[in-house]
């Protein structure tokens, strides 16, 4: 069960088709596993269709959107209908074996795979990160915004525990030190507007090599 979700603004931007391809991929993968957020996006899609049909300049305040989404949240999420699931966009992009990808060891517990070239024309960096089970990533902050989706396993930091398909957005004011839970390696998909910045004495020495 997912506990961490995209905020209302990001869902609105996704519904309107305003997100970049990498950010939209993160949202779509989360929606595939989260009935709660799917119902919110369905409502935003319906609202957008009504506004388009009116063919006029309609101003909808942020409080109105919040009121609509609050009403959706108060209703039970629809139960998924059994069906043969289509191949996910992630499988189409990377195949079905995440562990078998050509990972590059970056630190003792951390491996990365830069897939930015799969998204031509995008300005953000798109990377997969693998933190070995029970392993620790170095403490770091961010030079820009980082959007992350957990694809496998789970990790914890000062904000809580993030399980498979959980969604998190971090900015320059956020500093954390992810620790993978025991069991599976933790694999995440991240979209970064700028490279992360390692903190601490040892981390600062490595910063010139982090791209």
TrEMBL record:
Q: Where is the ChrR-like cupin domain?
A: 124-189
Alphabetized Gene3D superfamilies for the sequence: Anti-sigma factor, zinc-finger domain, Jelly Rolls
Q: Give the InterPro entries listed for this entry.
A: Anti-sigma_ChrR, Anti_sigma_zinc_sf, ChrR-like_cupin_dom, RmlC-like_jellyroll, RmlC_Cupin_sf
**Region annotation Disordered: where it falls in the sequence:** 73-95
- What Pfam families does the annotation carry? Cupin_7
Instruction: Report biased composition (Pro residues) as residue ranges.
Output: 77-88
Which top-rank group of organisms is this from? Bacteria
Name by which UniProt lists this protein: Anti-sigma-E factor ChrR
Q: What is the lineage of its organism?
A: Bacteria, Pseudomonadati, Pseudomonadota, Gammaproteobacteria, Pseudomonadales
């Amino acid at each position: 069960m997912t506990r961490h979700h995209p905020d209302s603004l990001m869902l609105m931007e996704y519904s309107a088709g305003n997100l970049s391809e990498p950010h939209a991929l993160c949202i779509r993968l989360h929606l595939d596993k989260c009935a709660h957020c799917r119902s919110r996006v369905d409502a935003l899609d319906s609202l957008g269709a009504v506004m388009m049909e009116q063919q006029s300049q309609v101003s909808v305040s942020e409080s109105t959107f919040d009121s609509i989404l609050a009403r959706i949240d108060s209703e039970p999420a629809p139960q998924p209908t059994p069906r043969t699931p289509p191949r996910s966009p992630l499988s189409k992009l990377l195949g079905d074996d995440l562990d078998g990808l050509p990972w590059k060891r970056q630190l003792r517990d951390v491996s990365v795979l830069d897939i930015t070239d799969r998204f031509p024309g995008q300005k953000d960096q798109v990377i997969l990160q693998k933190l070995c089970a029970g392993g620790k990533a170095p403490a770091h902050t961010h030079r820009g915004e980082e959007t992350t989706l957990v694809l496998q396993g789970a990790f914890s930091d000062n904000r809580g525990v993030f399980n498979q398909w959980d969604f998190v957005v971090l900015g320059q004011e956020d500093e954390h030190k992810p620790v993978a839970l025991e069991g599976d390696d933790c694999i995440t998909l991240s979209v970064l507007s700028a490279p992360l910045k390692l903190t601490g004495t040892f981390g600062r020495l490595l910063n010139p090599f982090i791209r």
